[in-house]
Amino acid sequence: MILITGATGLNGTEVVRCLSARGVPVRALVRDVRKAHALAQLPGVTVVQGDMSQPETLREPLKGVDRAMLISSADPHMAEVQCNFVAAAKEAGVAHVVKLSGIMPDRDSPFRFARMHGQVELALEMSGMAYTHLRAGEFMQAYFRQAPAIIARGSFSLPMADARIASIDVADIAQVAAEVLTSDGHAGQCYPLTGSEALSMSDVAQRLTAVLDRPVQYVDIPSEVYRDGLIAAGVPTFNADALVELFAERRKGKESTVHSTAEQLLGRRPTSFAEFAQRNAAVFRGRGG
Predict the structure, then answer these.
(1) Is the overall model pTM greater than 0.90, yes or no?
(2) Stretch (H or E) spanning 32
(3) pLDDT value at position 288?
(4) For every residue of 216-234, which 3-state class applies, written as one string?
(5) DSSP letters spanning 41-108
């Protein structure tokens, strides 16, 4: 049996859908079953309730599970709750845990979530269970956050200067995860996952322009202006500061390397940003998704 944590989140939902489409029985771990109605309707999916901040609630969901996918929200408690899950999975006899990690996990990183991912990766490696780290780059879906500005002003603003980034579609990450969870030969592997091209924000704007048939411009802004805008929009200070750290690392080129791993595991070229933008044109036009 396979269990997916964070099953109502962006990545977890996609992984559950992929496994269901493959006819693979899967348990979807959620904190609130009321938010998982759509998942519960998918063939082969059993929704189970548990909270990784309360390890005792994981015992029943983990019974009989031999492989698990570890995903949780990026928040101040991410390392703690993921380490809780690693310990609970070991106690339950889980054989293999696949962790969705970041492209640059480093316990000494200036970026707080990279430090957390590095901490959890180490805990998983030391657990004695088989492990696979899926080190994903920036999600293309992150640009949905820019849709309101694109719709209103025909532009989006980020503190990226002219740095490049090799983004990847969440749907491709999910397909890779489903493959790793259902096949052998992945134990002990660390897979960096990116798309097939590294784009500057001006490149991203050009691709959106081509899809939307209206000019879209990228505006570079100082980090402090970006942070103030996030906080004004209701983003918690912890997360706003984390994003400032992340973009500082990106401006150094830390996410600009294109890796062929996703293509090898998918057996095809990963989704390009142009294809992603075309598929989601309605979102960037303000007509829903």
Answers:
(1) yes
(2) none
(3) 62
(4) CEEEECCHHHHHHHHHHCC
(5) TSTTEEEEE--TTSGGGGHHHHTT--EEEE----STTHHHHHHHHHHHHHHHT--EEEEEEESS--TT
For residue 72, tell me if it sits in a domain: yes
Closest CA to 122 of 105, 109, 103: 105
User: Tens digits of per-residue pLDDT, 165-204?
Assistant: 999 999 999 999 999 999 999 999 999 999 999 999 999 9
Give the C-alpha separation, 40 to 82, whole Å. Answer: 24
CATH of the domain at 44: 3.40.50.720
H/E segment holding residue 157: strand 155-158
Does residue 157 lie within any of the structural domains?
A: no
The span from the CA of 55 to the CA of 99, in Å, is: 18
Query: What's the number of domains the chain is made of?
Result: 1
> Residue 217 forms beta bridges with which residues?
155
Q: Which two tokens stand for residue 228?
A: 């103030």
The answer to whether residue 101 is domain-embedded is yes
User: How far apart are the C-alpha atoms of 142 and 80, rounded to whole Å?
Assistant: 25
The distance of Cα 3 from the centroid of its chain, to the nearest Å, equals 17
Check: CB of residue 169 under 8 Å from CB of residue 142. no
